[in-house]
Amino acid sequence: MLAHTAALPSFSIVRMGGRARPAKRSQSQRSNAGFGGGRKEQLWHCVEGCGACCKLNKGPSFATPDEIFDDPSDVQLYRSMVGPDGWCIHYEKSTRRCSIYSERPYFCRVEPDVFETLYGISKKKFNKEACSCRDTIKAIYGPHSKELDNFNCALRS
Length: 157
Ligand code: SF4
Ligand code: SF4
Prior knowledge:
Elements: H1 65-68, H2 72-81, E1 91-92, E2 97-98, H3 112-119, H4 126-131, H5 133-141, H6 146-156
Antiparallel strand pairs: 1-2
Helix pairs in contact: 5-6
The structure holds iron/sulfur cluster (2 copies).
One iron/sulfur cluster (SF4) is lined by residues 3, 5-6, 9, 46-47, 50-53, 110, 133, 136-137, 151.
Region (Disordered): 18-38
């Protein structure tokens, strides 16, 4: 389904451009809050040559592993993957690919079941939330980056 990298996009929990990092939503918040209504829905695609979400330590605007995960073993695994520069140790910068793609942790998989389990995002809302990895791309590569252009083009196509 994905290109060769995909991990924990920003979602509502960690929206970058000015968004807070409210961690998980409570049940009462898991409705339509924060979702733009009325516009035609874009179909999310992971794009080759991005890998923005494989920067695991993205800074204070993003949720911490403790805020994301309930299971301490997930926190531990996530932390163990963070390299000294904040990128995942399994991320190959030269190719911008995941070196353990077929065996990457479940939380790296941008899939409806994972979103529902981790964030309480219903499957109906999966696509819109997955599209919010745009914010991660902006934060990592910048608002005028070719990576962001590529992503936006992929969504339009
Ligand atoms: S930020 Fe989005 S487009 Fe980029 S690698 Fe991650 S899931 Fe794919
Ligand atoms: S294991 Fe690392 S490189 Fe692979 S998808 Fe997850 S965060 Fe990215």
